[in-house]
From TrEMBL:
Protein name (record): Diguanylate cyclase (GGDEF) domain-containing protein
Ranges of residues in domain EAL: 24-280
Organism superkingdom: Bacteria
Length: 294
């Protein structure tokens, strides 16, 4: 039995191959039960306009609360879900729940008409030909317009994707959903992929945001991503924004939207509605600083 320690640490002491394999199998077995036993939950992190700190949308993120092990981080179980195929069920649960929640918030006037829900989709889900039909059914059911849903995929989808995946992406785009490339810059995609696939935007990976305002190379990378994205008519959002310095640097580099602990972490729906409803008091974050010429 795993000892209960910090999140995800519990079984990480032993790094021998045998124990790793064993831990994986144990987690997979537990994950299979998690869905049926209501151990999976969806939390929501605000996506904001950098300039104002006002929410423009939310990213839905899955959480696993195991009755004995406590909370298990997605970084640990999502790869297992992907390898075992469980990701289709888990991803489907998260998406349906997030769209249901968005429909409720829209009906209650908690969010604006243009507020969008961003959901992660794994390569496996994008290889299922029925996905566009399933999503359009959910949109109708929850009374959510297609432009209010964004699907986040990794660059690997464009690099390794099958012809089924290409077809699914085109149908999703035709439906009117936004298609975002998540963790942009960490994979092996190129300008060519962004032109060939019907993506609508990129999420600049946190690793390029961390050093902004301090590391000139990161500033140059973000500058290049913004220039390229604008040339292709793509929307840009930066993830992992933790400090006003990073936010200001992004703003002056031409990035309009961001996500990060500076504004808020992912929280359960009740808390999200309370803190981020239309009339909410915004977090106490200093205004954008003027550019300092050197
Ligand atoms: P992601 O899609 O890139 O999500 C952003 C991650 O960065 C989230 O981690 C979020 O909590 C974290 N984050 C946001 N702002 C900050 C910040 O300012 N600083 C730092 N240090 N971190 C920040 P989380 O929730 O642990 O999720 C990790 C990854 O697991 C996600 O990365 C995504 O790839 C995957 N994931 C989560 N939920 C789902 C899901 O429903 N389906 C699929 N396929 N993958 C999911
Ligand atoms: Mg994401
Ligand atoms: Mg991301
Ligand atoms: Mg990321």
């Amino acid at each position: 039995r795993a000892k209960r320690e910090g999140p995800g640490r519990s079984t990480m002491f032993d790094t021998s191959m045998h124990d790793q394999a064993r831990q994986r199998i144990e987690l997979e077995v537990a994950l299979r039960q998690a869905l049926g036993q209501n151990q999976l939950h969806v939390v929501y992190q605000p996506l904001v306009r950098l300039e104002t700190g006002m929410p423009v949308g939310a990213e839905a993120l899955v959480r696993w609360e195991h009755p004995e092990r406590g909370s298990i981080p997605p970084g640990l179980f999502i790869p297992i879900a992907e390898d075992s195929g469980l990701i289709s069920q888990i991803g489907g649960f998260v998406r349906a729940e997030a769209l249901r929640q968005l429909g409720e918030w829209r009906a209650q006037g908690i969010v604006s008409d243009s507020f969008y829900m961003s959901v992660n989709v794994s390569p496996r889900q994008l290889n299922e030909p029925e996905l566009p039909l399933v999503i359009s059914g959910e949109l109708a059911r929850y009374n959510v317009p297609p432009q209010c849903v964004a699907l986040e995929m990794t660059e690997s989808v464009m690099v390794d994707g099958s012809s089924v995946t290409a077809q699914v992406l085109f149908e999703l785009r035709q439906l009117g959903a936004k298609l975002l490339v998540d963790d942009f810059g960490t994979g092996f995609s190129s300008l060519g992929y962004l032109r060939r696939f019907p993506v609508t935007g990129v999420k600049i990976d946190r690793s390029f945001v961390t050093g902004l305002g301090k590391n000139e190379q990161d500033d140059e990378i973000v500058r290049a991503v913004v220039a390229m994205s604008h040339a292709l008519g793509l929307f840009v959002i930066a993830e992992g924004v933790e400090t006003p310095l990073q936010r200001d640097a992004l703003f002056h580099l031409g990035v309009v939207n961001g996500q990060g602990w500076l504004w808020g972490k992912a929280v359960p729906p009740g808390e999200f509605a309370e803190h981020w409803h239309l009339a909410a008091t915004l977090p106490d974050v200093p205004p954008i600083a003027a550019v300092t010429e050197n």
